[in-house]
Target: Outer membrane cobalamin receptor
Amino acid sequence: MKRFSVLSRSMLMIGAAVVAVPAWAQQQSEPSSPEAATNGDQIVVTATRTTRSSVELGAAEIQKVLPGANPVKAIQTLPGVQFETADPWGNNEQNIALFVHGFNQNQLGFTLDGVPLGDQSYGNYNGLSPQRAVISENVARVRLTAGAADLGTASASNLGGGIETYSSDPTATMGVRFAQTLGSYDASRTFLRIDSGEVDGLGGTNSGYLSVVRQKARAWEFNAKQGGWQGNAKFVHKGENGTLTGYFNISDKVEPNQDSVAHNAGGLEPYYRSLLYPNWQAALAYVDANGAPPSNNPNNYMNYFGDAQRTDYLGYIKYEHRFGDAVTWTNQVYYHHDEGQGQITGPIAAAGLPGLFRIYYPGQNLKTVFGGSGYALRTTEYGIDRKGAISTLAIHAGDHEIELGGWYEHNRNTIFRRWYAAPIDNPPSPYEWADPALRRLTQYAAITKYDLIQTHIQDRWHVTPTVTVEAGFKSSLQFADGRVPTQPLPGALPGTSTGYPEGRLNTKKWFLPAIGAIWDITTNDQLFGHIQKNVRQFQASVAAGLSPFAVGSQQAFDQIKANTSPETSWTYEAGLRSHHALDLGPLTAIEAQVSAYHVDFDNRLLQISATPVIASVIGGVSILQNVGRVRTNGVDAAATLRFGPHLSVYNALSYNSSEYRDNYVSGTTTIATAGKYVPNTARWLNKTVVSINDGPFEIQAIGDYVGPRFATYTNDQGIGGRYLLNLQAGYSLPQIDGFGVKDLKLSVNVTNVTNRKGIYELVVGAASKTWNSYAQPPRMGFITLSGAF
Model:
């Protein structure tokens, strides 16, 4: 891959964005609150109050991507965002990949209405995904701060930017909204929402809604249903001096998952790695008398099934009190409970399992122990109890806007790794929890608690009517404690593990500063700049990939306490926002934003595993260590050309260069990563959205280009670029007199229009040679009828 200078690439991108193809980004007058930033169904290049690069996507545009889409999937059209997943909605969490400015989803900050959603680890321990926290149709907007999240963002993982999702408020009038989607692979999504309208009482106005959705679809690679159901309730009381908001969400989700394909690891390499479910007889015939899969396929053998089952309860109460025009105090409390299982039913004589099982059942017939089928069911059983509070005091004092805030969270998460029999006459199901009566062993049980405290203070000083300076800092303190009531028996984890560690690990970062400035050059043009330091607190769970509590010995944990630091970053960004009405023939307006950024990422953590090929299901021993620095330079350029009221063309062109600055040592071997690019992060991204509307008709085409990527830390493996095209068409039906139905709309969505095949998503886990991947989902079509009463 040939290198170009950052400067030449940056100039090329800026020129391309200004003169060519860009779609719906409209900048309005500065919003007084996040809610006020919504501008119909347009992407909003927000705006004059932020020193950061910040863009928003509104509700209508999210649903155009695909009705019911994960709000994080919808932002893949925004500059600097690389997003991939195996299903068209973006719901499948096992193989979601999100990168923004070189940082992955575990290094970003996620919130819903200000409530922290954790670091999005698939090994659930401190949160839940946005699509499990709110029904997609109830999302008002999503805000992306690509460089550095706001100081007050309730996240302890945001080395990079923040993704803030906001739920819609109840409507002022009583009504019912509905939507029904049908599509490829037996897909069905049914949405219903009932709004009370505003009702006077309790010293003000009251409104609320109840909403439910049911979704299911057959996975495209195997014959199993993915989906679940979800419910939302929201209540808003507006009084003379304050607003009280209550929100509750319940999500029950079941996702049978495909496995990733291992490359260069030995044996067959299929296009995708399917499952044998629900054909139990074929599964029985697939393994030999000892429960071993075919010998020519040691790493990409087929399991009977694997799945993720998650049940979440999330709620908050928020009260915003206004002490006159100058002081507002907002307090919010929240609670989140999660329980679930990750399951794999696979051959008992694969992936090193016989060695594990013989430790617990020495000298016994393992096939008989596990029910005579040659298969066993492995579970990772999750439990989360989080509770927290957020408080923010905003003071307007002359030319100063002062904000003081604090966030506290207590979390207790549990992880149990267990194995169950898969009886030959009673096979397990991916839609049910494992039967306790069939439990054969508990490999380990771990309980981790932490208390997290973050505070911040900042001052936004309007130095002149056109110049604003913003400065502040936050403190981030974490106090974690891990216990392992059930340890693995000696030898039950790979390598030289002696068991999981126990103990306390406290990390304190008292001063994480931020400073920025805005200059209104004209009423239509604005320069902005920002510098900020961030920290990613240690993951506190045995299930998390970069957790000190997941290493293989007490000695390793103690060394981490003494010698290892949490990851930190300095982010520098500057840019220009501009919007102008034009009278150049068909061209009537242009809106654009260009930003350049530099990131110094220090103390990078790496899990050095005894099983680098991502095929083992034993889990366990790893070494966690700081392996040096990453330096990132990049440019995002996004613009919209408007050709009257009926046509707009949007384009976002992004360049990112993220390079390792150091080698690291694995055992006694030096791994030559200095000067290598961060794998799975494309240097070039380009997004194009063409929108056409005329009366009741609308058509939208979305193009998404992701450039070549490396697949290993030493860059000896990689894949080429890919381009995907999605289409959406909608028609607003005329009102039917006498039926009371309004806003009837019929929409059609087609994903991967060209039916592109190939590798879609990388899974990086090795320094060289081996890597894993998921295949590109095929073309799919969906039709949706929506409306209201």
